[in-house]
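To illustrate the input format used throughout this study, we show a single complete record. The first block contains the structure-token representation of the backbone; no residue identities are included at this stage. The design step must infer an amino acid for every position from geometry alone.
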């Protein structure tokens, strides 16, 4: 089985600042990876690095949802496939959504309980609704790998559980930054903890208990 990604002694950062140092990481198809650690530990930098390397395989859920607030929920979800259509097709859809595209996006919005908001402006949504719109866009993108930077941070535990289950079932491989330990252990097959710019823990979730992860968040 060919890896989705292999990193060997790779460093990364931004604005001239090194955040991650000499990272070794192999990701296999079918893995569900929870990336964890304190705020500022380098989780987002790791996700960005993975996205840079395998972006053509990835449906991305950015931390801030990254929606165009003046456009409708429909159009924000449709953006998940902008690169797969001609410019003329996309411009027509901006004004007159095609019935087939509309039906497909309605079905995906059903999965995140937002069908009734399909033509609402993204900027009028709550934080949780915006996050679910971003998840629906990843569904519509339909790549084999989903990368999510805190994709359920604005949702309650019940909603988060539902969304994570659907993300893991609709994408072959998932790499998700999470801060909720029980959610991570129940949905991931592998947990990676980033600390001080390095991988401090990389283990199967079945080998771990919540108590094993708490020290990485304490203090």
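Output of the design step:
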């Amino acid at each position: 089985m060919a890896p989705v990604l292999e990193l060997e002694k790779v460093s990364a950062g931004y604005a001239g600042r090194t955040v991650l140092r000499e990272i070794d990481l192999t990701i296999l198809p079918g893995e569900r990876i929870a990336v964890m650690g304190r705020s500022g530990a380098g989780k987002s930098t790791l996700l960005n690095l993975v996205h840079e390397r395998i972006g053509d395989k990835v449906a991305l859920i950015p931390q801030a949802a990254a929606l165009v607030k003046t456009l409708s929920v429909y159009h924000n979800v449709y953006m998940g496939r902008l690169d797969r259509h001609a410019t003329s097709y996309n411009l027509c859809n901006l004004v007159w959504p095609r019935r087939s595209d509309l039906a497909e996006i309605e079905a995906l919005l059903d999965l995140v309980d937002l069908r009734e908001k399909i033509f609402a402006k993204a900027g009028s949504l709550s934080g949780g609704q915006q996050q679910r719109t971003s998840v629906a866009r990843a569904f519509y993108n339909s790549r084999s790998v989903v990368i999510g930077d805190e994709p359920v941070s604005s949702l309650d535990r019940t909603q988060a559980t539902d969304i994570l289950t659907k993300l893991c079932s609709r994408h072959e491989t998932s790499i998700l930054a999470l801060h909720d330990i029980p959610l991570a252990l129940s949905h991931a097959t592998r947990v990676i903890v980033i600390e001080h710019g390095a991988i401090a823990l990389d283990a199967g979730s079945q080998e771990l208990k919540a108590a094993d992860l708490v020290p990485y968040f304490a203090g």
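Structural context for interpreting the output: The mean pLDDT is 93. Helices lie at 43-54, 73-78, 87-95, 99-111, 127-141, 157-170, 181-187, 210-213.
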